[in-house]
Structures are given as C-alpha cells and as structure tokens.
Amino acid sequence: MTQHIKAVFFDLDGTLRIPSPGPTAAFIHFARSLDIEIPPAAEHRVKVWAHEYWGHETLVKQDMEQYDIDGFWINYSKQLLEKVDARQDLTTRAALVRQWFDTEYKPQVACAPGAKQLLATLKQAGYIVGLISNRPNPLHDDVTQLGLNEFFDLMLAAGEIGYWKPDPKIFWHVISRFNGLRAEECLYVGDNYFADGRGAAAAGMIPVLYDPEDLYGESVYPVYRRIRHMTDVLQILSENGLRSAIGNRLFS
Asked: For burial by CB atoms within 10 Å, which of 60, 146, 164, 247 has the most?
C-alpha cells in the first residue's frame, strides 16, 4: 500500500512544549484569588477565546502597534477579565493581572506526554518531521532544552519570514523546502483551532487538533480530527496507509 502521508509538522507551544500551568489557566487561578467567581462555562469560554485571539494575527499586530508592551498586556488582561464577566474595577484588576504575570508567573515546562516517543517513531519510519511556530525568534534553544532537537528536519519561527499562522503562506514556505512534497501529504498537529487548524487547512494540509482538555467538542467544532494524546497521531497515520516495517509492528 502506498504511504499517503509523507510529513508531519507540529506547533511548539501548547503542543509539544507544555507550560504548567498554562498562561490562561494561570490567569484563572489568579483571578479567583481576587475573589472573581469563574464557573466552568466561563473557564472554558476564556480558554477558547485566548486561542481565538492569538489565532487572529491581524488583530494581534494591530494591538501591538497601538500599545507599548505594558499597555498591550494590560489591554489583553482586560479582555481576559471581560470574558469571565469580571467588569468591576476592570482597569485596576487588569493592572494586577499584568503585574502578577510579570513578577510571579514562572511555569514549569515539559514535553507533552508521549511526544518524544511519537517523534522518535516518526523519524524511524522515515517521515519528514518539522516545527512551525508563531514565535518571533528562532526555536533552537527551547527545542534543545526539551531534548527534541535531533528529531526535526526543519524548525521555523514565523518571525524569521514575516508570515504568521493562520496565514497559509507560512505553511507553503515550509512545504517548498522539501522537493516534491505536496500539502495534502502533510499532517499538521497543533493545539489552536484558529491558528493551527484553520491555517493548516487553508494551506491544504491535514489538520490534527491536539486537545487534551477537550476544549473543542465535536458538536461545536466538527471540522478537524482531534486527539487527546500525542501518540494518537500514530493511529491517524495507520488509517492513512502507514505500513513501513515499524508501522507493521506498531499497528498489527
């Protein structure tokens, strides 16, 4: 059987590189310390909204141009508070959120569970493996700290070329680096429905949404394949015809 998928590309932050707590979860924790009531529905809403905001590259650029760095993060904090219906003393509370993140937020960072196993298996099976991130600066140092450097044929930060997810140009740029590779032969695995899912789909790739918190229920976001664990990517590849020697051992 012909192997259909030839390349698997990944997002970095929130996908392979997991901060604990994540920034939106940390915001929720701190907001509750201010006696702001955040029920589960509001918690879910603000986490999805944060993905949507960072997946709207034009809006983010506009805000960055409008504000200095401190003003940008205070404005972002205001929007987080609004999404959990905490509108009282909004400016004061937003300044407290900004200060807390600036001085107290020090998350532990680790690989997503199963990520190293997945990447090693993909490389052994002969896939092209790469990273496409919306970071402004090169990825090498953080990837090396995670112990993942050996697995990637290419690592690209959006700031290196000036195209940002969900703009399909960033995905096309990566595809063009591999002679003869076509978009439909690529999986793209990311955690952000709006940047990763929509961007990869617009580029013609096959999007896979890493969604361990089940933020994107099928009834609301039915378009893309979702996974809860990194090694679930192997099952998707098996369905697309992976039958290398390694693949036969994995899926028989």
From this structure: 164
